[in-house]
Design a protein that fits this description.
2 helices, eight-stranded mixed β-sheet, about 210 residues, alpha/beta, six-stranded parallel β-sheet
Amino acid sequence: MGLKPVIIIGNGGHARVLVDILLLQKREIIGYTAPTEENNRYNVTYLGKDEEILKYHPQEIELVNALGSVSDTKLRANIFNIFKSKGYKFSTIIHPSAIISDTVILGEGVQIMAGVVIQPFAKIDDNTIVNTSTCIDHDCFIDKHCHIAPGCVLSGGIKIGESTHIGTGAKIIQNISIGKNVLVGAGSLVLRDIGDNRKVYGSPAKEVSK
């Protein structure tokens, strides 16, 4: 059985990257939903607001969560949870240039962008973005609804809690544990564990707020 056609939720910059991957994979795109029709650069059909998805039976389609995040993953998580509760499935999207060990476990709706490397026995949970040119080494665990921004380097054995954002170009040394709802600022160097609900920045990273 072939892959199901998809509906994309969102129309920002992250959506355009996902459309590009879907076109490379020759996936059928029914259209996209968003509050307005703005930013449609790929001539994908605008279906209307998210409620339009409910016209399609959950067994007929898959969804692509195209809401990115700059520092807060709540909206992306809400979209995922709402439509999962209605029986819909989210498509896992992997750019063909990504290098992923056969022992890696990917959850539902995970998105792996161009140039990503994921080493053996890593696990990435549902609805997480691993963005362009990020490197995730062996035995890392990344919980659901996270965003690992472009160019990050995660050494082996790192644990990252739910709904955490790791900013562009951040580096984390081996065996570090980072809690849930954490924001690690762009370019930071993380040398120590970080608790829940923290915001850290710098080299080495230090807490700037809760």
